[in-house]
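Thread title: Can someone regenerate the structure for this chain?

I was given the following input by a collaborator and told the matching structure tokens would be attached. They weren't. Posting the sequence so someone can regenerate them.
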Amino acid sequence: MPEIKHRTVPRKTANNPGENIIIGKNSVKAALDSEIGINRLLVVKNSKCDEEIIIKAKERGAIIEYVERSAVEKIINTANITDGGKHQGILAYVAPIRYSTLSEVFALAEQRGELPLLVLLNEVEDPHNLGAIIRSAEAAGAHGVLVPKRRSAAVNATIVKTSAGAIFHIPLVKIGNTVQALRELKKRNVWIYGTDAAGTVDFNIADWQRGACVVVGNEGSGMSRLVKEECDFLVKIPLRGKTNSLNASVAAAVVIFAAVTGRK
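Best answer:
Regenerated them for you:
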């Protein structure tokens, strides 16, 4: 499997403008298991931090500091990290997450001997949704997640934590113009499957035996008109209860795993 490389603008911290902050045991474990650089690890005194995390951090050359809980919470509040109360007594300063290229994503699919499976986020603004979608994509074995530079939640500690660290194990591709990105995928024999409540194709019977990109739209307004027009298929999830819609990340997970199952 090729090395996953990412390219992003880092979150600036008071300690180093080139560092990112991540919190929580799963996020830190995932970072330690990846190629991303771990600079410092802050552990709340008397907290139940896994010894495995401490050992791995030391092996990676990270500086370990034992601090008061108030010190960690002050850093989290200053960085405006949502869900900061779920830090589980551990915070890490890591190197900037770097983005991959489309070529690297296709190379990964080729090395696995699989048809490309990508997920494109069209104006997904809630960081919790973005993190959850990345988690589902990585868990399903997708080869990459495409994130627009504009009108999309910025990669931060909330997204890292919501993804349970999956963000360190799947290529992320930063794209400019979404329509142009979709057209580029089509040139590479990838079919575009937009998720839409008014879609004409049931996600269970869609033909997934081809290179595929699942497009997930905005939490409220769905996909933009121009993006919808670029889709080869608009797939829907039939709802049988009184609830008339699903959370964006839930709908994405259902369709992504349907794509994987449909290839078997």
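DSSP finds nine helices and eleven strands in the chain.
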